[in-house]
Amino acid sequence: MARTRETGHPYEYVTYAPAGQTCGKCRKPIPTDTACRRVDNERSSASSVVVYWHTECATGGAAK
Q1: What pLDDT, in 10s, does the model give residues 6-32?
Q2: The model's pTM
């Protein structure tokens, strides 16, 4: 699991994903009215990529 550079946590904060986003872990759609975790994955070859995870996926459970 990737960790953010600033905090060392696997996610930055809880938020709502923009329309059309899928979970970075389970690859299922994230509804816009469902709280999720925002992850800023840094890449060595380019700029960072923002990924959204279901709260359940970020805490080790499976998304419904």
Answers
A1: 555 566 788 999 999 999 899 999 999
A2: 0.69
Torsion of CA 18, 4, 14, 60, to 10 degrees: 100
| Burial class for 19, CB neighbours closer than 10 Å (0-12, 13-18, 19+) | exposed
Span 43-48, average pLDDT:
74
Sequence-distant (6+) residues with CB within 8 A of 3 are: 9, 10
Q: How far apart are CA 64 and CA 58, in angstroms?
A: 13
Q: Which residue has the tokens 């970020």?
A: 58
Residue 37 pairs in a beta bridge with 14, 53
